[in-house]
Amino acid sequence: MSNRHLLVWIEGTVIAALAMALEYLPHAVGPLNISYGIIPLAVYSLRRGWKAGLSSGLVWGLLDLFLRGFGSGGFLNPLQGLIEYPLAFAAVGLIGLGAGPMQRALVRQQRGWMFGYAISATFLGVLCKYFLHFVAGVFYWGSYAPKGMSPVLYSLVANGGSAILNLILASLVVGLLLVSAPHLFMPKNIQPA
């Protein structure tokens, strides 16, 4: 393994640990949940790309499963646990699909494109995460729906609201970081293609 790959792996592990630590901050707004860990994973994914982002998200999901899922009643069965923890958290790494175009726009100082790529990619990663939570909500958590409410609507309201809240928060922070600390998105050891 080259030094560059080792650096990317170490960076990803630190980001996963930071994302996990942020999950211990109070994060409920009524029935909605804020996932602060999306923010460092978004920055990392936009810095290192989707493969590194998926890997770091997977580690974060496994950490969350073992440290919170098993103990909090969030784990119902192996398939639900797989969908809502490793897969959903890894899906946030898809934000990295926008890394190359966003970095090229950053180098060319094309602010509009830079923000467009970063926000669009963030939208994709957050939506993928909450789509997986929505699917699990329909099939595994639907029995908690209020009487007369369909599991689909129940899951859509619960997960859709959380998705919107997290999308707004992550987009705002990523946008602010692009303005105030653009170097966070450009690793020194690689140049955008």
Automatic annotation (TrEMBL):
Pfam families registered for this protein in UniProt: Thia_YuaJ
UniProt keyword Transmembrane helix present: yes
Sequence intervals crossing the membrane: 5-22, 28-46, 58-76, 82-100, 112-132, 152-179
KW Transmembrane helix (keyword) present: yes
Record's keyword terms, sorted: Membrane, Transmembrane, Transmembrane helix
UniProt superkingdom: Bacteria
Protein name in UniProt: Energy-coupled thiamine transporter ThiT
Name of the coding gene: thiT
